[in-house]
Amino acid sequence: MARAQFSAETSEAGAFVRQSNRFTGRVTPHSSSPPGAGPDEQNRWPLEPGRYRLIWCRACPWSHRALIVRNLLGLDEAISLGTVDPIRDERGWRFTLDPDGFDPVLGVGFLSEAYLATDPDYTGRVTVPALVDTVTGRVVTNDYPQLTLDLSTEWRRLHAPDAPDLYPVELRPEMDQLMADIHRDVNNGVYRCGFATSQQAYDEAYTALFARLDALSLRLAEQRYLMGDTITEADVRLFVTLVRFDVAYHGHFKCNRQKLTEMPVLWAYARDLFTTPGFGETVDFDHIKRHYYATHDEINPTGIVPLGPDLHGWTTPHGRG
């Protein structure tokens, strides 16, 4: 069997099995803790504007969707933002983009410092996004699926007056199932392709990925967005994978039946979102390519970052809407 990029997250059959999220605290107005205090007995932190800091990486799809949701809801003043370097070494995510290599608010040079301040015995992989409490320096959550849903629901009183409803109550049962399918086969599916260490594990992930993309193409051929005429969290979750597809997943992760640009409906849909305020301006193709090609040394041992593909098509007319 080939060597695994993350051996602790690879099954005996060679399949990539993503680690669980260690920190699952939630910021909510229902916390019984007073302002400035830590979590209550149910691990609920008090909702306070300006207290929490979202740590993200421009290259990472999981943190990218947290940033998009934060911005769409107008929470950019309520939640500050810290950005890590796209190149992650054996010590993890670094704040080398900041002066002197330290996050100016948290005062740490590595995100792992906040993880260990929260759990001194933590030995798992340090991941982004992470919502960090600036009062204690502790990680509130790295549970990326729940984080963005909470931004729509628990943070509502801090939303901008014209903020969209990204998680409509009446659509949640259908949305939850759709987002679960997208996560399994697409969002995490590309990683299951790329990090597979057996042919069988790769074949299964590849087949599921493109079957799901075909199903999504049929769905989006009939409507502008995944849930109809308005953007929801489901669109955010799909977009962050699609925008990385040709620059990273098609070649680096061997998701190569077709490029996104060769799937007409999904390509038009992705361009539609890219040119929507809150989406395209948050994309950094340089960081994306440098992260994937320069940090997965078991997949790309030379560390060479490709010059392509041509990105000019992202701003061409999409013909939707």
Automatic annotation (TrEMBL):
Pfam families: GST_C_2 (PF13410), GST_N_2 (PF13409)
InterPro entries per record: Glutathione-S-Trfase_C-like, Glutathione-S-Trfase_C_sf, Glutathione_S-Trfase, Glutathione_S-Trfase_N, GST_Omega-like_C, GST_Omega/GSH, Thioredoxin-like_sf
Domain of life the protein comes from: Bacteria
UniProt biased composition (Polar residues): 24-34
Region (Disordered): 24-44
Residues in GST C-terminal domain copies: 168-295
Coiled-coil ranges per UniProt: none
PANTHER family per record: GLUTATHIONE S-TRANSFERASE OMEGA-LIKE 1-RELATED (PTHR32419:SF6), GLUTATHIONYL-HYDROQUINONE REDUCTASE (PTHR32419)
Protein name: Glutathione-dependent reductase
